[in-house]
Every structure is written in C-alpha cells, then in structure tokens.
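Input record (Table S2, row 497):
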Amino acid sequence: MAIWAYTAGMSERRIELVRGDITRLAVDAIVNAANTSLLGGGGVDGAIHRAAGPELVAECRMLHGCPTGQAKMTRGYRLPARHVIHTVGPVWNGGHRGEEALLASCYRNSLELARAHGLRTIAFPAISCGIYGYPIEAACAVAVRTISAFLAEDAAIERVVLVCFDEAVHDAYAAILADPGTSASVDAHARMLGCLLGAVVGDALGVPVEFRSREQLSADPVTGVRGHGTYNQPPGTWSDDSSLLLATADSLINHGYDPPDMMGRFLAWLKGQAYTPHGEVFDVGIATRSAIARYANGAPPEAWGPQRARQRQRLADADRPAGAVHPRADAGGDRPLQHGGQRADARAPALAAVLRVLLAAAGAGGAGLVTAKGDGAGVAAPGAVRARRGARRVERILDGSIVEAPASAIRGSGYVVHCLEASLWCAANHRSYEEAVLAAINLGEDTDTTASVTGALAGAMHGLAAIPEAWLRALASREYVETICARLVERIEAGRS
Ligand code: APR
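Output record (adenosine-5-diphosphoribose complex):
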C-alpha cells in the first residue's frame, strides 16, 4: 500500500493516505460506512462483515441501529483491527438537505468515540462515496476539513488513515492534501462554522439561567447543558439571539446584504415564529421589538433603530459573521438594523473587526486575540474600526486593555458595552471554547447573549471541532441550524473564490 503523509496545517498530527482494502489494516479501529440498521450491506460494509465473521453482526444486533451522522463501536473479531466504528453517512440528495453537516458529523463522532475509548489510530473509508452517491471531491474535502480541525484541538489521536479503494477517491484526496491552501481553507472554514454554530450553542447553554445573578451561579455554576429554568424551555433551546442570527444568515445567503429583506425576516420571526426551534418566540428585547414595529409601520431604514443614545441594548450585528460584514461597517456608516444609538454604532464594527481578525488568523488559534492583548494593538484590527463620537465608553475595547481587566470589573448585563467587554474578556482569557462560554454564562445576568457573542468569538478562535459534541447533540433543531450555517459559509467562500 502506498503511504502518503500529510501534516495538517492546524496541528502537527499526520493524516495518511493509503490505497487498498480497509479490512486488512491493523489499527485500533477501522470505520465502517454502514446503514442505519447496522446489520451489514454491500460495499465496505459487506467487506467488513465478511472479514470479521458472524460475531460482528451478532453484536451489531444489540446496538439497535444508528441514526445518520452518529457512530457506534463494536469489537473487530477476526479483523486485524481491534474495533469497528460503525457510522452512517448521508445519502446524497443534491446538497441542500444538511448532507455536508451530517457527513462532517460522521467523521467527528467517529473520532470522538475513538478518543473517548483511548484509541490512538483510526482508518476511514470514503464515507458516502459509493452507494450513497456523495460527489467524491466534495466528500473528501469535508473529510479532510473535519479531521484536520479535530486533530488541531486534540492531542490523543496519533494517526488517521484515509483508505482509498479506488482511483477516483485517491486522486481527490491527493489533490486536496497537496494543496498548500488546504490548511488555510481548513482553518478558515472550520473557524467560520465555529463562529456561527458557536454563537447558537452558547446561546442555548445560557438560556436556562438568564437573569440569574453571579452570586447564584457561583453557588450553582453551569458546567454543561441544562434545561427549563428561566423560560422553562427544553434543553438545547436557543433564543432570539440565534433566531436573528439565522434570519440574518438566511437573508445573506439569498439576497446578499439587503437590510429590508433582513427586517422582513425579523418580522416573520416576531409575528410568525419563523427561525425558532419550537415555534415559540420568547425573551424579545425592547429595542428589537420597537425597531421591527417601526419597520412594519413603513418607517425608512434610517429610522428603524431607536435614536436615543441611552437606550440599553445589545449588539444586533454581533450575529453577523465578519465575512458577511458590509464594507460600510468599518466606516461606521452601517447602523445596526435594530439598535441605533452611538454606542451600538461603535460596537457593531468593533466586534465585526475582531471577528475578521480571528477568522483571518488562520492556524493561529487564539493568537489573534492574544496578540492584540500582548502588544496592545487593540483587540479590533488596528485601523479597522475608527473610534467615533459616542465611542468614549469603548476605549478599553478598542485599545485591547479590556482583556487585562480583573474578573470583578467584568459584567454580563444586557448593556451593549458590558456584553462586548465580557465576551472579549472571556474569549481571550480561556484556553478553549468550552471554558470561554461557561465563564460567560457564569458571569450571570444576560447569560444567553453574553454566551452567544462569546461563543462566536471562541468558535472563530478555536474552530468547529472545539465545540463539545455533547453540546451540539443537545442543540434543538440541530440539522436546521447546521444547514443554514453551512450554506452561509459556502456563500462566503464562493464570494471569495
Ligand atoms: N476498503 C476500503 N474502502 C472500500 C472497500 C474496502 N474493502 N470497499 C468499498 N470501499 C469504498 C468504496 O469504493 C467507496 O469509496 O468505500 C467507499 C464507500 O462506499 P460504500 O461502501 O458504498 O458506502 P456508502 O457510499 O457510504 O454507502 C453506504 O452501502 O454498503 C452499503 O450497508 C451500506 O447501505 C450502506 C451503504
């Protein structure tokens, strides 16, 4: 078997490319491209069951099947591999039914399972590239991006072997792995998805404890997914923060930057419960509700946001990924759609600039933010955001000193300056997505919003693989959210090529 070694750009781990039959590999686990019954089939599924012997199907029978995108593990029996990880790839349906997110889940969940069982070496066939008809180049790109992003956040898995049974798969992988842009595109793609999904996951984790005080949360800190609480919503429910993010994303996907279309979708959310996980709208901010009302009553765009500078508010544009930020944002000409006021004006471009720095800092992990912290260059990319009238309260953000502040000086209230300060502080002072989001939530007060903005920043810093799989699994309407996020990233990448 020809061995082709590739060093993943986001980590020094190795991905190996081999030609041949996966059933002959002596690794800790080989992955099976199974079907939801797990009772065997054709293709690599059939080959693995034949080589493993009848004990394999007997054990599989006790697993009671496996949903698409998930993974389950058995022993390897007569195979040289110790274990078989059975995962079910998506059937290709044209690419607009969440296939990419589901295929990425197959690779991520298989790697999670291997890591959870202390396995060090794992081999994958080209999942969904046979009977399920996924276009080979696209499927191989998803595999490399997902595996590289996972390895960038993981020290346990030592070797991932991509097994090519036929020429077309091998050529596709070889071209992707040989492309110097792969690691950068892996980084950027993983970071953009991490930014968007990171915001929604952070929101969902914060919803149950919104308005709890810091004292209450220090006595009973959030350490993972909870349910019910403030709004009595089931675990994984996300709030208006994510509904508006998804509405904005959907608008950008279909219309580019088109404020009237965005506001039309916000109205559909407020009045028609569009972009909600359970058909219910809750926790609507005063500024948001009145801005949408002004739009609905025919006010011109410049009159949608409240004009009063003292209006307590939070960022609307925090929900837009940097890649989609309108050029005018840097010039301060892009008033946030729902929140007027001078401080909101200063905040939106500041956050967009920080996200742009992080998304551009390919391969630098959190360095983008830490560098800003270190050299005082200002958390926002220097020159990307001009401090303007009304930006007086944001100098700690613009000069980067906020990340050095003591925890006692950080608040999680719904006030826009507190929200952005807290989010930057949590993202810059914690090593992982998980730690940053939990720190944001346990600040108390407007927990869902602070965790959503922190999740966007931390997701942009650490990439999609850094979001705990258990938190993604718990997300309400996960496939719906992943599909919109993946389509927006696709649109941004298409716009860049
Ligand atoms: N070793 C490595 N790769 C193999 C092997 C093998 N022995 N046999 C086939 N492959 C390759 C195929 O060439 C293809 O590139 O595995 C890839 C996946 O093809 P399939 O096995 O058809 O899997 P998939 O497209 O995911 O369809 C799954 O097919 O086998 C059934 O029960 C399975 O219903 C499920 C469906």
